[in-house]
Each structure stands twice: as structure tokens, then as C-alpha cells.
Amino acid sequence: MDELSLFATHQVDWDQLLDAMSSLLKSQVLARENERSEWRYRDFSVVAIREPKYDDDCGIPFSTYSHEISVLDLAMSPGRESEYVALIQSLRKRLVEEYGIETVAVRNLQSLVD
User: Fold this and answer.
1) Which residues lie closer than 8 Å to 102 by C-beta, 6 or more apart?
2) pTM for the structure as a whole
3) What is the C-alpha to C-alpha distance for residues 57 and 77, in angstroms, rounded to an integer?
């Protein structure tokens, strides 16, 4: 299964992002560090990374993104890709609609996803 990540396209306050994610996932932060926070949603781990340290690559300006949100499938069961993609799409849509946090979706850190 491809790995999908969301990247905040503008400078958003770290605490604002964490509050938004906790509300959207209806979950408290499991682990909170200065640069990384994690939640559980069903059988998924959702991780926010503050100011990810990627070089611009594959035509993607990673250095301009303030934060990354990655979703990991903990169950790794066959046939869950549609649920995984639906979660990413839902988070992306709700972040902008409810919190004004715009993101881009990136597949395998190599290509933008519409």
C-alpha cells in the first residue's frame, strides 16, 4: 500500500494543529513531544510532525510546508487501502472546512495527489 501524508501549506500554529487533530479524531494525544505528536484512530496511528526536515524533491517544495500528518495502518490487513485513503481524504477536507488549515496530499514522498 502506498504511504500518504498531508502537509500544511501555510504556517499554522503547532498547538492549533494539535487541537484540530484531537477534535477531528475525537482522541486525546497519546504521545506529545516538541516535534511529534501521535493519536490512535481505529486501527490507525496518526502522527503530526512539526517542521519536517525534507529537502525539496520530485518537484515538491517540502521546505515550504510547516507540518506533516502521516497515517499508518497498524492492522496491515489486505483490502484496507480504501479505508486508509478515505481517512486521509476526510482529514484533509475537514482541516480546511472546519479549521482553515489547507494541506496537500503526497504519495510516498514522491508525488502530489489531487
Assistant:
1) 8, 9, 10, 95, 96
2) 0.88
3) 31
